[in-house]
Amino acid sequence: MKTVNVYIVRHGETIFNTLDKLQGWADSPLTDKGIQLAIDTGNTLSNVHFNSAYASDMKRAIDTAKLILKPNKYLSHLNGELPEFREAFFGLFEGLDNMSSWKSIATPYGASTQAEMLEEVSPLVVRDRMKKADPTGLAENGEEFITRIHHGFNQIFDSSADNDNVLIVSHGTLIRALAIQYGDSSMDPVHEFPLNGGITKIIVGPNKLTVTEYNQTSI
Description:
Helix content is 37%, strand content 16%. The chain is of the alpha/beta class. It has a single domain (4-91, 141-216), classed as Rossmann fold, CATH 3.40.50.1240. It has a six-stranded mixed beta sheet. Helix 2 packs across helix 3. It is globular and about 50 Å long. Substrate binds at residues 10-17, 60. It comes from Paucilactobacillus nenjiangensis.
């Protein structure tokens, strides 16, 4: 049975990260630290024989991917920029304070943080709750979020050969959701948000995802 090995990496630190602002389809540039984190991740992955590489179409992900590929011994260019691997869309909450926004979303459910909600419900239900709290109705719901992600993985699976290694540079909430949905009990993505530059490994099969490693800084 054909499988594809995906190394999915969170982008480097950005200005919005340092300000603790929600950053989904909004974008902000990498900081100097973020650039260095991307370089460090590239050095960690330099000996991985990548057959292809993709980034979400957010500039912070594209810039990170290019820095990661620079020292790679086998692949030096991106094969594409895929909107399917964008961060979740936070609607009205884009660019707002992270802590206070999640408190306002979580309070009706007897919680005060996103993590407290994730202890009780799936990431897709949390997406539904954010959409419900967004008076503009623009935030992505759970079905919209997971459907586009699966579409992205299907594209990569169909365009890859058996046992190919694929790099994807994406975003924290997306990677965390995948780890919760498709990881195992040895991981704790509910309480451990992906690091900037953190590496998560996923085996992609026909209509199947299996997260085998989460949020690593070495391989």
